[in-house]
Write a structure and sequence with these properties.
By secondary structure, this protein is mainly α. It has two domains: about 90 residues; about 80 residues, no CATH class. The chain is built from ten helices and no strands. α1 crosses α10, α2 runs antiparallel to α3 and α8 crosses α10. It is globular and about 45 Å long.
Length: about 210
């Protein structure tokens, strides 16, 4: 079902709005499951901070894929882990090589491009530098582009990580959100997107977000 983005009347971004949504993330019962998942992922990344051992990377890939519903088929998780090990990403993450996101996303020529997964995988290594892309973040950034004209970009620009980062930081600058971490801005965008752009709930709660 297509959502009419013209008639949503979402509150304009502001420090007060982001504060409200960050508080929702930390305190609302609806997000308890997601908070616990986030804690577990952070613990796992702290336990296995490097990406040179296949067994450690595979655990991280599998857990991230399940908790964040990044749509990698189970049969491909091993291939994704092998791909990450082969890319030798640790020094590149340290040196803020943002091309690594698009390289992780493309496992091979035959597979789908796992772009949202790649942004989340890198973000959990460097949450201060690598913002997260997902479908809700995409919709919110496009909504405010159309309503507020904060930055000019094409929809597909968000699927290129360097272009996505330009849009993301332009959004932060436009609405003076520099006091917030990238992760806090992500919570705001994700919860806002989940609120306004989720498909209608039926009998079964949709988990793939």
């Amino acid at each position: 079902m297509k959502i009419d983005m013209k008639n949503l009347n979402i509150e304009m971004p502001s420090v007060e709005e982001v504060d409200t949504y960050v508080k929702i993330w930390h305190e609302d019962d609806e997000y308890e499951k997601f908070r616990q998942q986030e804690k577990n992922v952070v613990m796992l990344w702290n336990q296995y901070p490097t990406n040179t051992k296949l067994e450690e990377v595979l655990i991280k890939v599998s857990v991230l894929n399940k908790f964040y519903s990044t749509r990698i088929p189970d049969v491909l998780e091993l291939h994704v882990a092998q791909h990450i090990v082969e890319l030798n990403i640790d020094s590149r993450l340290d040196n803020l090589d943002f091309d690594i996101v698009d390289e992780i996303a493309r496992v091979n020529e035959e597979s789908n491009r796992y772009y949202s997964f790649a942004t989340k995988y890198c973000s959990h290594h460097r949450p201060d530098k690598y913002p997260i892309f997902d479908s809700f973040v995409d919709k919110v950034l496009r909504y405010f582009r159309n309503e507020e004209k904060y930055y000019t970009f094409k929809n597909n620009d968000l699927k290129n990580y360097k272009s996505f980062m330009e849009v993301y930081h332009a959004f932060i600058e436009k609405y003076k959100l520099e006091k917030f971490s990238l992760r806090e801005v992500d919570w705001y965008l994700w919860i806002l997107g989940r609120k306004y752009f989720s498909p209608p709930k039926k009998d079964v709660k949709l988990e793939n977000e």
